Amino acid sequence: MSNSFFEIGMKIEMEVERDQQKIYLPTKVEDLDGDTIFLGMPFHKGKIFYLEDSESIKIYFGKNDGFYFAQAKVVSKKYAPIPLVGVVLLGRPQKNQRRDYFRVQVIRRIKIRLLNANNWESAFLADLSASGALIYFGRDLQKDELLEIRLPLDFKELVVKARVARVEKDETRQVQQYNIGVQFMDIDEKVRDDIIKFLLTEQRKLRQKGYL
Length: 212
Known about the structure:
Strand order of the largest sheet: 1-2-3-8-7-6
Strand content: over 45%
Shape: globular
Number of domains: 2
Oligomer: single chain
Mean pLDDT: 86
Order of helices and strands: EEEEEEEEEEEEEEEH
Number of strands: 15
Number of helices: 1
CATH superfamily of the largest domain: predicted glycosyltransferase like domains
Radius of gyration: 18 Å
CATH class of the largest domain: Mainly Beta
Distance between the termini: 23 Å
Low-confidence stretches: none
CATH architecture of the largest domain: Beta Barrel
Helix content: under 10%
Structural class: mainly beta
CATH topology of the largest domain: Thrombin, subunit H
């Protein structure tokens, strides 16, 4: 199976299933060798996420202004000099119509508030997809709390409703120590398309700077 879709340094997202739940794990392509794609071994909740030998996964990625997914299988694992997992594709990548999984690192100041609260609070956007975001925030929040987010894109500001999906404290940061993973709710397709347009622009900028 040709790996012409992939480049070293390309960011992707793995989908794996555990206990009948889908888990999405960001990583990137570290090397290509024949049909084998070597990916950085992903982390989950601050620890290496171990994949089983011959485990089937899905991988999602953006390329040439499109979103793709492919079925793949784990064929090898290496731990030195860096932890890697080798996968081979089980079919040609297909266009992903949902596009929910494409994620780009975007660092910028945002405002958030609990739903129906009066005061907006400062936070940092760390990464963004069409279905959710990772936010750095200065205090703890509860899972399933509902938020409003003022999301400044280059061409407009969006206000989106979101649900807190996970909260983790990062002791290595002096400020905004809480990593808040949120899932967008009741999002209009026009708003989703605006986010995707912004993500594609940001991806092109990162590629031009050599970060992708």
